Amino acid sequence: MKRTLITGAAGFLGSHICERFLQEGHVVIGMDNLITGDLKNIQHLFHLPHFEFIQYDVTQTVQLPGQLDNILHFASPASPKDYLKFPIETLKTGSMGTY
User: In this structure, are residues 71 and 78 in contact, taking their beta carbons and an 8 Å threshold?
Assistant: First the structure.
């Protein structure tokens, strides 16, 4: 079974990608710092045995146990109002979070 890390998992796009990968039989590790993401988007996944959620900021180094087969990076404040509210966090996520 493939293990997939999805950043921005509690956002609009990330939450739907989590659902899709779970439907395709992946073990999904969803990661989000919840600055703009909302747990309501993924709450329905919490009971699934192949879904794990980690509240974490992707601008910080992270060590996850085991091998990952895929990393899908969707972490970023995703609207102009969020860019204005969190300008530094947006820039850090796009640069340091992708590095």
Answer: no
CB 7 within 8 A of CB 34: no
Under DSSP, the state recorded for 59 is T
69's tokens: 């087969």
> Over the stretch 33-75, which tens digit does the pLDDT of each residue have?
999 999 999 999 999 999 999 999 999 999 999 999 999 999 9
Q: What is the maximum alpha-carbon separation in the chain?
A: 40
* Separation CA 22–CA 24 (nearest Å): 5
For the chain, which residues make up each domain, given as ranges? 3-95
According to the CATH classification, is domain 3-95 in 3.40.50.11890?
Answer: no
* SS3 state of residue 50: coil
Does residue 37 sit in helix, strand or coil? coil
